[in-house]
Every structure is written in C-alpha cells, then in structure tokens.
Design brief:
- By secondary structure, the chain is α/β, with parallel strands linked by helices.
- The protein has 4 domains: 44 residues; 107 residues, Immunoglobulin-like; 43 residues, no CATH class; 195 residues, Rossmann fold, CATH 3.40.50.
- It is built from 10 helices and 17 strands.
- The strands form 4 sheets. Strands 1, 3, 5, 6, 8, 9 and 10 form a 7-stranded mixed β-sheet that branches. A 5-stranded parallel β-sheet has the order 14-13-15-16-17, sandwiched between helices. A 3-stranded antiparallel β-sheet has the order 2-4-7, with no helix packed on it.
- β8 and β9 form a beta hairpin.
- The longest helix has 21 residues.
- The two termini are 54 Å apart.
- The relative contact order is 0.11.
- The C terminus is likely disordered.
- This is DUF58 domain-containing protein.
Length: 435
C-alpha cells in the first residue's frame, strides 16, 4: 500500500491554533459565537489533516525501460506512465521518482489534473558506471487540499529493478590460443585407451548415460570417464573469476574486482565469437552441465559480488572436473597454497592462461585520489580499499612464477592496464607481464 505523510501547512497550523484560542476564549468568556467559530476552524484543520492521511489510490504507475538491460556506461530511457484510476478528476500534483544513486539524479515532474482514465506519459534518462541490480521507484507525489491547509506527500507502491551488466570490450582476434581437439600443438587430442582408436574418452559430466562409462579408462585415471563416439563440433573453454575478498583492492568501479569482472566478460564474449562453448566458473560448486550463453554469463557477472571463502583451491578444483581444452583464469594474489592448487589443475593437452591482477596497485590508486578514505575506513562493498597486503599472500609477480612452473601462460596486470593488452600478452607466445 502507498505510504502517506500528511503535514499541516502554515495556513493549516494557523487555522488550528486560532481555533484552539477561540475555543478557550469562548469557554472562558461564555461567548457561544467564539465557541462556534473556534469549532469550525479546528474541524477544518483536523478534517483536512485526516483526509491527507488517505492514500492516493487513484494514481497508478507503470514503468518501461528501454533497453530492458543496460551495460555499464550505456544510456537508457525510462517511460513513466501515471494514470488516474479514480472516479473523479485528479488534482495537480508534483511527482518525484526515486532511483538508485548509481542511475543518476531523481527526476521531478508536474502532473496536470487528469480526468478519470486519463494518463500522462513522461520520460527520463538513466545510466550507470556501476554494474548490478538497481532500483527504480517508488514515486512520491505531493498534493495540497483545496483550502491549502495540508501538503500531502504520498509514496506510491510499485517499483522495478534495472540490471546493469559489465561491458564486453573488444579483444585482439589474432591473439587466440589454439585449443580443443584438432587444434594446434598447445592442446593434444584425448584419445581412447587400450587400443580403442575409434572412440574418444573424456571425463564424466552430470547427465551422461551410465552405459557410456568406459571402465578401463576410469580405472586408469582414477575418475569416471565416458566414451564419446563423435568429436564435438565446438571447442570447450572454462573461464574462472576469483571472487575472494582478500584477493582484491580498490573502491567502486575503480577496484581490481570490477576490472576482473569486465575482463572475464570480455574473454567470454571473445571466445564465444570464435567458436568456443564456455563454462563460467565463479563458485566452488559451479557445475559443467552445459556451457553458458553470453547473456547468461553477463547476468551472472552483473550479480556477482566478493565472497568470504576459504581460498582459491575449492574454486579451482572445479576446473579439474571439466573437459575444457582452454582454461582462462583471472585471479588476484593469494597464498602459495592457493596458487599451487590453481596451477595443479593444468593438464596435458589443455592451454591454461592466467591474468594475475596486481590488486595492491588498485588500492594505492584509490588512496592517492583526493577525498578517498584511508585504508581501514568504511568503503564500498565492491572491494577493500587497501590491497591484499595480508600475511601469507604472495606478490602478483611471485604468483605468476608459480603458475608458469606448472605450464601456465601467466601475466601480471596492474592498475591502468587495458584488458585488451592483457589478453594480447597472455595469448601470445611470450606471456610477458604488463602494467
């Protein structure tokens, strides 16, 4: 239900005060005329106040957003329709739409008097530099009664959310590592064991038929393997996003976590454009039942937040259960245990790429801006302002060295690094770090 807020205006307060004084004077002096006039003034003020408490049920609000989903830095338009659903002509009202802070300023409108069933359509722009789900509404209207005794502020029911997804930035098409069956020498074909040359063996995935389990290969590898009589027409890739709160720094859209989210979205879109089925790994229980579409990936990334969990090992373990020929990990610094757990998921025949975000450089960039709170102060939920200079955490450069020793291509990306440059370096044969 709408929530009204009726307040007596200066005129209304004067009516009420005058009525009380006249009632007191009439009672003291025994003058009936003063009592009657005082009673009328008090009743007018009290009646106007009581009526102002009634909700503006005559006003219905509808919202449409075009486009239905926005990307970061993309502008959209909200169409607001106010309809008089009552049986009487509506008064002139001043309306203000409540919008989430990232979407812009709160628009105000003057809604003219409307006949029953008549509507008024208004438009206002929105845009956000912060991904996520942001609220539109409710709308507040202010109405005065016919005597001007009250000013009624009513917050109408009804609101909706706008999903703002991360940007998908263009990446260098020439910097695409070969992967998957039938590609270059980075990835070898997984072939059948024990002489079954006409059958390909791959790891078991949820939903596979039990009759397709290849027991000799399962015994040889220690995990369930299934027969695949035909090679898949598309290559498979897995993209991992490190969500550990201890791995990121910076504030708001300038944090290392937001940079990582944008990079992951761009990599997913880039790989899908080049014929890959992509698994998006953001949580330890992320499954590999089916690849995600770009829309699904962007929706997931738009709602993804930093998480307090034990470490990277549990999330990285998902990679070892998949059948991807290409793995791309965007991670922050961590402990030696975390990095070795991720590095150990590299398998022969898989191209493993890692972009290690030098998150302390994002924290220092925030601290260097005027008006930004020092480390330890309350900050945005998006990331910690101070870098992951925590006990047991390796530097980004040391993290890269561990990954390379296990056969990964790995680079460091610091504050100011463009995702396209990081991708070009990681997908090239050199794998030099960029800052």
């Amino acid at each position: 239900m709408p929530r009204p807020d009726g307040v007596l205006t200066t005129r209304g307060q004067s009516f009420l005060a005058s009525g009380v004084v006249l009632l007191a004077a009439g009672a003291a002096l025994g003058l009936g005329d003063l009592l009657r006039i005082g009673t009328v003034l008090v009743l007018l003020a009290a009646g106007a106040w009581a009526l102002s408490r009634r909700p503006a049920s005559w006003l219905h609000v509808e919202r449409e957003v075009a486009p239905g989903r926005l990307a970061v830095d993309e502008l959209g338009t909200v169409t607001l329709t106010l309809r008089n659903a009552g049986r009487r002509r509506s008064p002139l009202v001043l309306a203000q739409e409540h919008v989430a802070y990232p979407l812009g300023d709160r628009p105000r409108f003057v809604v003219p008097s409307l006949r029953p069933g008549e509507h008024q359509v208004m438009h206002y722009p929105i845009g956000s530099v912060v991904r996520g789900e942001h609220a539109l509404g409710p709308i507040s209207v202010r109405v005065r009664d016919g005597f001007g005794l009250t000013s009624r502020l009513t917050r109408l029911s009804g609101s909706r959310t706008v999903l703002v997804v991360p940007q998908v930035l263009p990446l260098d098409a020439s910097a695409l590592p070969g992967s998957g069956p039938g590609q270059d020498d980075d990835v070898a074909d997984t072939v059948a064991l024990h002489g079954e040359d006409d059958v390909t063996i791959r790891p078991y995935r949820q939903g596979d038929e039990l009759r397709r389990i290849h027991w000799p290969a399962s015994a040889h590898t220690g995990s369930l393997m299934v027969r695949q009589e035909e090679q898949p027409s598309r290559r498979r890739a897995a993209v991992l996003l490190d969500r550990r709160v201890t791995a990121h720094a910076g504030e708001g859209p300038h944090s290392s976590f937001e940079w990582a989210v944008t990079t992951v979205a761009s990599v997913v879109g880039h790989l899908q454009d080049h014929g890959y089925d992509v698994d998006l790994v953001t949580e330890p229980d992320t499954g590999h039942e089916r690849p995600v579409t770009l829309d699904e990936a962007l929706t997931t990334l738009a709602r993804t937040v930093l998480a307090e969990h034990d470490g990277l090992a549990s999330t990285a373990g998902v990679l070892s259960r998949g059948a991807a020929g290409l793995v791309v990990a965007v991670v922050g610094p961590g402990s030696r245990t975390d990095l070795e757990a991720l590095a150990a998921t590299h398998r022969t025949g898989t191209a493993s790429l890692a972009i290690v975000v030098d998150s302390p450089t994002f924290g220092r960039a925030v601290e260097g801006r005027p008006g930004v709170s020092a480390p330890g102060a309350e900050t945005s939920h998006l990331a910690h302002p101070s870098g992951p200079a925590r006990t047991g955490h390796l530097s980004a450069a040391a993290s890269v060295e561990i990954l390379r020793r296990y056969g990964w291509r790995a680079v460091v990306a610091g504050h100011g690094t463009v995702p396209a440059l990081a991708w070009r370096q990681i997908a090239s044969s050199t794998g030099r770090s960029v800052r």
